[in-house]
Amino acid sequence: MRISRPLAINIALGTVVVAALAGGVIVLHPFGTPTAATDADTVQLTGTVQKGVVSSTITASGSIAPGNQVTSSFAVSGTVTSVAVAVGSTVTAGQTLGTIDAAQLQKAQTSAATQLANAKQQVTDARASVTAASKASTTTTATDSGTAPGGGPGGAGSAAPGSSAQGSSATTAAQAAASRASAVASAASQLSTAQAQVVTAQSAYDSATAALSSATLTAPIAGVVVAVNGSVGATTQAGSRAESVTPSGMAGAAASGFVTIADASTLTMTANIAEADIAKVGVGQDATVHFPALGSETASAKVTAIAPTATTGNSAVTYATTIALTSAPAGLRLGQTAQVSITTQSSKTAALYVPTAALTTAGGVSTVTVVGSDGRSTEKTVTTGIAGDVGTVVTKGLRQGEKVVIGSVSASQSSTGSTPGRTRFGGTGGFGGTGGFGGRPPWGAGGFGGPPPGGTN
To answer: Between the CA of residue 189 and those of 131, 181, 382, what are the distances in Å?
Structure first.
């Protein structure tokens, strides 16, 4: 049987319209979504009262850095004669990192040792001089106070009291005593000078010995070598032997020095927290760190430090916050990107909670609209707890499993691709109206349902 062209067109149009109707019903009432119609043009959105641990978190990103990082340099200038490590080497504390030419340093140390020995000998000689001068002074004093030759006091050989001979003798004795005292003082002064020269020589020797020791650079800590800034034949400049470096999040960006070592036994990351959130963050808070390069791997962590001053960049004010990892997944490397979620507050145990959008608070009183099994809505007053990422804790007023209203949308807005406003089926151009199936279109011949110009096929 041959089907006329108008009939074929009407059948096709009917099929399209029926499919559109079915799609509209699915959009307005999606499968598996709890809804309740409040009127012909509104669709209610509902959620369920659930039970679980509710936490509030702040997220930020950064990169993995060592907990401790040290750059080490030669304490004296010289020409590098050996480099004992390379980037990636694992070292222990005290292990040799490199050496410089020690020939001149050895000569300086030998010369200082000779000067020290000479100074010590001068002290020995000066001490002997003091001893001799003191002994001579004591012996001569005893002789001066003894009996004069030719008899005892007042004897034939003695001068009469008050005579000129007796006065001359006394003067000579005083001069001799003064000379002896001067000799003792001079010897003592020479000893003091010699002792001072020993102190100076000892200091010079110690410095020369330390410089000679510095010709061999050793690792101040155990760890992994992350930078080597020297080569054989290069000249090094004197610097600090070992200097702590604050990890910046990139181990490769170490401070300049001969060798930089990172202690990877502890790992940290530094995250920049916005000023709007920093008041919620505190030292000791728990955190979870995720590593995009390692898939779903995570690590537990804690906040260990918060910068006291802010950093401004790109019109944003942030505070550098240090997070220390308490564990680390296998394969984690220094410098890798990390994303941290800091738990600012959390319920101690599993608690009832609802979507935060379900709550209405006015005058300090919070209410929710509960949808019963019969579809009726009832407003209930509730007591709330912490507001978390998944919802807000409700400590009183609800039961687990109850449905609560979280909002509503118009039927037209819930339809995919529709324009805002009312959406109704029927009306002009609808089923059975002018221009419908079997009727003559108002826009003239050739439309749907009417015979085309020239009659039927």
So the answer is: 13, 12, 96
Nearest alpha-carbon partner for 77 in 101, 61, 56: 101
Question: Residue 169 pLDDT more than 80?
Answer: no
Backbone phi, psi, residue 371, to 5°: -100, 115
- Report the sign of the C-alpha dihedral through residues 437, 438, 440, 444, in that order: positive
| Residue that is written with structure tokens 């499993």 in the block | 401
My answer on whether 355 and 330 are in the same domain is no
What are the residues facing 267 on neighbouring strands? Answer: 66
Which residue type occupies 311? T
Q: Averaging pLDDT over each range in 312-316, 366-370, 451-455, which range is the top one?
A: 366-370
Prediction pTM value: 0.59
- Supply the CATH number for residue 392's domain: 2.40.420.20
Q: Which domain holds residue 256?
A: 59-75+226-346
Residues 133 and 233 in one domain: no
For 239-270, how does the pLDDT look when each residue is reduced to its tens digit (9 = 90+)?
Answer: 766 565 555 444 444 457 899 999 988 999 99
Q: What is the pLDDT of residues 191-207, one digit of tens each?
A: 899 999 999 999 999 99
Report the b/e string of 195-217 with b at 16+ CB within 10 A: eebbeebeebbeebeebbebbbb
In a domain, 453, yes or no: no
Q: How many CB atoms lie within 10 A of CB 88?
A: 9
Residue in the structure block whose two tokens are 């994303």: 339
User: Nearest Cα to 211, choosing from 144, 111, 118?
Assistant: 111
Residue 47: what are its φ and ψ, rounded to 5°? Answer: -130, 180
CA atoms within 13 A on the CB side of 398: 36
Element (H or E) spanning 96, and its range? Answer: strand 96-100
Q: Are strands 259-274 and 223-228 parallel, antiparallel or unpaired?
A: antiparallel
Residue 326 has pLDDT above 90, yes or no: yes
**Token output for 270:** 């530094």
Instruction: Specify if 402 maps to a domain.
Output: yes
Per-residue pLDDT tens digits for 5-32: 555 555 665 565 555 554 544 444 443 3
Count of domains in the chain? 3
- Whether residue 247 is found in the same domain as residue 208: no
Q: How would you classify the pairing of strands 286-290 and 337-346?
A: antiparallel
